[in-house]
Each structure stands twice: as C-alpha cells, then as structure tokens.
Amino acid sequence: MGREENKAFCILPWIHLAVFPEGSAKLCCVADHRVNEEGTALSLQSDALEEVWNSRYMRDVRRDMVRGRFVKDCAVCYRGEKAGGSSWRTHQNARWRTELGPRFDSLVEESTRRDHAAADAPIYYQLMPGNLCNLKCRMCFPTFSSLIEKDEVHSRWSGTLFEALFDVPDAKVGEPRSLSATPPGVSRLPNGPWYRDDSWVREVLLKNTEQLRALYFTGGEPMIEKQVENILDHLIAARVAGNVHLEFNTNCTVLREPMIGKLQQFKAVTASLSLDAYGAYHEYIRYPSSWSAICRNVERLVALRGERFHVHGGPVLQVYNALNLVEVLRFFDQMGLGYQVTIAGSPWYLAVGVLPARIRRIAAERLRAYAADRPAHVQAHLVGVAAHLESTPERSRPDSLRTLMLFTNDLDAGRRQNVRQVHAELLELLEEDGFHWTDERSPGVGADQQIEHHAG
C-alpha cells in the first residue's frame, strides 16, 4: 500500500511533537490524548526527550500507521476526512511530501528497521511555551491562559481539563488548579517549567538546530510570550533562521514592530488569526478584546503578505458563533484572506452538539448559502462544516442546555457582559424549542456579580 493510499498514515509521528506548557506532549495539536506509558502521561519535565519521542506509545503509533491501522488518537482527522475530504493529516502529508522529497519515505523506512524508533529528533515542533495571555476566551482553559488561571469563576469551570492533563482521578468540576502545581509523578527541571529554563530549551529541545525545519507557536499569546522571542533570537544568532518556517496563532490584539522585524528573517511565516466571529460577537467570545484594535492589526498583517509571509483566518466553530459564523468569513473575504474552520470539542458544553437540531440546521443552511458562490475548495470545506453541524451526535438535553446557561451566566456576571444583548437570536430559538433561559448562576458566584440588563 502506497503512502497516499494509506488513509491511516500521517508523517507527523516521524518528524513532529506538540509540547504543552506543563510538559506533556501529543502527536499533534488535534490528537485526542497525550504520549503516555500504560495510561500515565510522559512529560518533558521528568522524562528525557528521547524517552518521549521514541516511547512505546510513539513506536506503536508509527507501527499501526505503516500497517494501515487507524490510530484512535487521530480520530479528529479521520472524521474530518469522512465529512469534508481533508484534514490536518492530509494537509501535513502534502506539505511534507513537498518539503522533504525522497526523505519523506526514507524516514519511515529507517524507523521501521529500528522497531519504529525514529533515528532523528523532531524537525518540527508545536511549542506552547507558557500560558501568558491577555484574553479569557470562553472556550479556553487555564493551561492556555494566565488570565483564566487567575479567574476564580472560569478556572473553576475548567477543572475537568486539568483532570485529563494530570491524570487526577478525583478531580472535580469547580476545583481550581494552578499551573504552578506539579502534576502527580512529575518533578520540575532545575530552573522551573521547561519554558522558563532557557538552557534546556536551547541545549535539549532545540539541540538539532541545524536540522530544524518548522516551529509552530501557540499559547498563551505568542506575541507577548518572552520565550517565543528568546527562541527566535537563538535561531537568528545561530544563523539558521533561513531554514525554518515559523507558524503561530495570534489573537491579533498585540502587534509589535520589533517582533515583526524578527519574523521577517525566517524562511517563511504563516500567521493564523484566531478570530471566531465579527464585532460584538467576537468581543463576547474573546474577552476583553477590542474589535477595532484587532482590525488595525489585521490590516498591518495583511500589508506584510508576500511570497514568504502568509496570513489566514482560523475561526473555531462553537455554540457562540454557530449562527453568525458567516459574518467573520465575509470579513476574511474583504481582507483577501483564506481561512480554515476548526470545530471545538471542548469544553463539551460549548460544542455545537449541545444545540437543538433545528438551530444547527439553520446554522448549516446559512453556511451552505454563503458557500454557494465560493471557490470549489472553499465550498467543499464549508459544506463539510455544515454537514458536521447537522450530523454531530445529539447532546441537546435540558441538563446540557442548563450547563451551557450556567457557564454563560457565570462568566457574564464577572465580565459585565450580557448574553441577552449579544445572542438574542440564539435565546429566542432556544425558547421556541422549549428551553427557557433564566438568570440562574452556579453556587459560589458572588451575589455582587449581577448580570446587568439594559433596554434594547
């Protein structure tokens, strides 16, 4: 079976590792679970890079892919291909087939002879060097936002993510956790978290500087995280920047000219704009962003576009933008930007499956109507997203909708936001489907945090 015909195969396990702030790692950003040993997560805080990279888990994944066996943790890509024909897997295979040439196949063949251990260290990392962020996006978690970590209400809701990250069986929803706490079985590096240990980052993680071909920075917010800039400085000083393709997600709230100057020294740059909605809808999701400031920064990034500097949109489909997603897609059109819609799976109460089928059908119809006069590849992508809206497993029960309501009201109370003002249509449709949205909040949200209602 050729690599192209093998629908289970992805090149990333041979060249790539996604590294999270607390030290865990995944096959890639969309994989379901972390690299683990018999269910216990491995961590770069306590395990050598080689032990993670060529662990039994990684070797088993490579073995299964070579044999055409579907890998459980890659289900997101397999589902995406079934719905719309493309995925992160297909994109990365095409990209690295071109980038590596004959080396694409020889890497796989070499590791097969080595019992599926990779001979070389990763040449492509996704790095999340800390959770420093200036926003508290509703679908985000303390792992990726320092402001959420400090937000007593939002971090309490996010306890379930830490249960998954740290393998804490007795973790409870509503129990805040801190990134500074050491997960069970993990001992910190001498100089603190891996992303604060500059020498470890340079001498271990980036030991193969000459072979490095790509870095994908996510966050936190990469434009304000100092370690991102430190890594760029290190690669520039090592005179290898011209070999490295930089990728980063940005919330577009901060754009510094010195950072832009550094980015332009690299082989190529791809900026993915984390914009989920338009105007007030976006400000509601990604608090406390300013849409006017975002627009100015998007215009600056668009002005930088060229053969080596690429910019595209990266909206995340969720409850809060399902009915109005088309508006931000039109904004991307106006800016001359392509985009790729990804689908939120967590937190579960913001995944679109929580919405009643009728509301999801309305959202899907709007996407299809917008897609009708788009280019063929865009149309195919959006039709796949619309199909997901209609076919995603049904989770719209009264208790699920109440969970959504409580989460929404709890966050509104502390942010002086009002779901009734921003999402009046959604609440009206829910009412028509039999769910009455009240002002109820979870126990523990202070009485002084009242949701303000205004006429209009």
Q: Measured on Cα atoms, how large is the radius of gyration?
A: 22 Å
Strand fraction = 5-15%
For the termini, the CA-CA separation is 62 Å
Mean pLDDT: 89
Biggest sheet details: 8 strands, mixed
Helical region count? 20
With strands numbered from the N-terminus, the spatial order across the biggest sheet is 2-1-5-7-8-9-11-13
Overall helicity:
40-55%
Tell me what you see in this structure:
The protein is of the alpha/beta class and 456 residues long. 42% of the residues lie in helices and 10% in strands. The protein is built from 20 helices and 14 strands. An 8-stranded mixed sheet has the order 2-1-5-7-8-9-11-13. A two-stranded antiparallel ribbon has the order 3-4. Strands 6-10 form a two-stranded antiparallel sheet. Strand 3 and strand 4 form a beta hairpin. The longest helix is centred in the last third of the chain and has 18 residues. It is globular and about 60 Å long. The termini are far apart. The C terminus is likely disordered.
